[in-house]
Design a protein that fits this description.
Elements (H helix, E strand, L loop, with lengths): L1 H25 L7 H4 L8 H32 L5 H18 L2 H29 L3 H20 L4
Helix pairs in contact: 3-4, 5-6
Length: 158
């Protein structure tokens, strides 16, 4: 699993780095369609592949998140709330937020929430590294935590 994470992280960083070159050359309008306009310069099919990958990724994330949140909710309230009712309770507000907000604002808000979550993860990892007296890791997780804190507080839509 660790090797898979390293490979996925490497591919992700390379895709972002190489995409930045295209963004500089193409100079699209700063809106939600830019991610589909720029790859078209590399290949006619690339925007469709990106769309399919994004939809598959988001669908998988939604199903996984809804299922895990449903199980957590049932654990908290016990038998008073059947699990089949937890899904609408979780998904309807999420769908309403997406439908009623502008796409870039929703993405910016989600990014800030993820950054806050990763800040908490970095704090936990830093604390564990502190206990183990692994000072290089403490410094690394402190840096990640600061970066995530900046994104969480100052992150704004493009």
């Amino acid at each position: 699993m660790r090797i898979a994470q390293v490979i996925a992280s490497t591919v992700f960083v390379l895709v972002i780095a190489l995409s930045l070159i295209l963004f500089v050359q193409v100079k699209p309008e700063p809106n939600g369609t830019a991610i589909f306009i720029v790859p078209r310069e590399a290949s006619v099919f690339l925007p469709f592949l990106i769309l399919a990958a994004a939809l598959g990724s988001q669908l998988s994330a939604i199903v996984n998140a809804a299922n895990s949140r449903s199980e957590m909710l049932v654990q908290q309230v016990g038998a008073r709330l059947p699990q089949k009712w937890t899904f609408p309770l979780i998904l309807v507000p999420a769908i309403v937020v997406v439908l009623l907000t502008e796409v870039t604002s929703a993405v910016a808000l989600a990014s800030r929430v993820f950054a806050a979550y990763f800040l908490l993860q970095a704090l936990i990892a830093g604390r564990l590294a502190w206990r183990a007296r692994r000072w290089a890791w403490v410094a690394f997780f402190a840096g990640v935590g600061v970066a995530m804190g900046v994104v969480a507080v100052f992150g704004i839509p493009a």
